Structure formats: structure tokens, C-alpha cells
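Kindly go through the following sequence and its C-alpha cells. Advise at your convenience whether the C-alpha cells fit the sequence:

___
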Amino acid sequence: MAATLTQERFTGPEWIFERKLDGIRMLALKNGTDVKLYSRNRLLQYHPAVAEAIVKLPVRDVILDGEAVWNSTSRIVYHVFDILWLEGRSVIPLALDARRALLKDVPLRAPLAHVPEIKDDKPWERACREGWEGVIAKLRTSPYEHRRSSYWLKMKCEATQELVVGGFTDPQGSRVGLGALLVGYFDGDDFVFSGKIGTGFDTKLLLDLRARLDKLEIPKSRPTITCSGRLGAEPFAHRDYRMTKLDRRYSGLMSSVVSVAAVIVSVSSLSRRVAAYI
């Protein structure tokens, strides 16, 4: 069962929240003394410490669902958040609350661990504050489904940054229009280059942007840091991009841009302010 991404933020008595773990999704199957571990793509996984702990569980047969994560000492921890089969019967049709009750009675010992419920008023805020990837909201009455389901909703921590368009790169290969927009932001009075944005555009938008940029291109630019491409288009817009992660190795350069949240195609006071820097 896979969670569906949502931008909504909510709570309610019909939902439970769990930490979204950043590891490898894994199913654990025990039949007597035989244990097999499978990835989400049904590939066999080899984790002896996990397999040995599952063999020792005081149940004859069980199927567990969870996430394998490596801790700060590089030791694997299998965080178990659901149960699909127990002692000869499928528990998939049962409500999540009922499955969690069954799972709670299965004594997990390291490197196995139960995934606890988060009871904060705004669990997504705690997730972002503590540096988690996000949280998963799960409907208490939901059965287990072998697909991506709206019964499970993931709320990811995302950083947002308003960025000024300061230039562009030429397209490569079969791409048309432009390769990427070169964007930056203000740090006091300094205009700082932030990164390249090359995703989120369809063909029509790429061609439209290039036509606008060609009209605004200027012969000389003064970028804050060197970058291949043209930092010579007079700014005509600013964009609000949503990011899942910031690559801290490069002091603010963007990575993992996932979507364009808004486009303002008019010269704003913010854009005019950039003109002094290019």
C-alpha cells in the first residue's frame, strides 16, 4: 500500500499520523523458520540481522510491512507499521485500527521497531521542525490495499523560495526553447545566483519563454558567481518554486525542484530591482 501525496494539512479523529521514514520499503514474510524480505518491487533483500530477529518472533507465520532505515551508527532498523497476515489468516480486510492492535501484540525486538502514532496537534509542523521527510496520514477505518491509495496521504516537508529570473541556458538535444532558467534571490542588496530550473515546463511554455527572453536579452551581465549559460536577460518575472530538499553543500544552491507554484509574467518592482545586477 502506497501513500498519495497531498498539499492539504489537516487532522481529525478519523486519522492517525506517523513519521514518514526515508529508507527502503520492505515486506517481511515468515513461515515457520523460513524468512524472506522483499522490496516494493518484489526483489529479494538480504539483511541477516532483520531476518534473524523475525525468525525469533513468537508467531508461526506473519507478513509485516515497514521501512528499513540505517541509523547514525550505520545499523539497520526495520520500522514496522502494518501487518498483512497473522497465524494462518489474512488481516488485509480489517480496519487499520484492528491491524495496529494485532501488530502491537507482536513483540518486536531490535533491530525491529514499531512505528508510533504521532499525536501532535499539527504533526506536519513537528516533522519539518525536526528535519523529517514528512508525515503519513492514515484513515483508521481503511483496509490494506495493494496499490497507491487515498486512504494513506503523505504530507512532505517542502522549502519554498521566491526566485527572480535572471537569465537562461540554450536547449540541448531535442529540447526546444531553452534549457533552463537561471534564478536567484536577494541577500540584502546583493543578488545571489541560486540555481537552474529546467523542469515543470511544457513545449508551449518553453517556446513562449524563449520568445520573451530573446526580446529582453542584454549584451553584458554581472552574475554574482560564474555559471555556464546566459545571465543576460532583463528580468521580466519572478517565480515561486517549491523544493523538497536544499543541498546544504553548496550554500543555498537549489536541488530537487519538484514543481512550479506560480508564475508572474509582468515586470514587478522586484524585477526592476534586479536590473542593476545584470
User: Anything to note?
Assistant: Confidence is low (pLDDT under 50) at residues 225-278. The longest strand covers residues 76-86. Residues 1-17+119-156 form a domain with the Dna Ligase; domain 1 fold (CATH 3.30.1490.70). The radius of gyration is 25 Å.
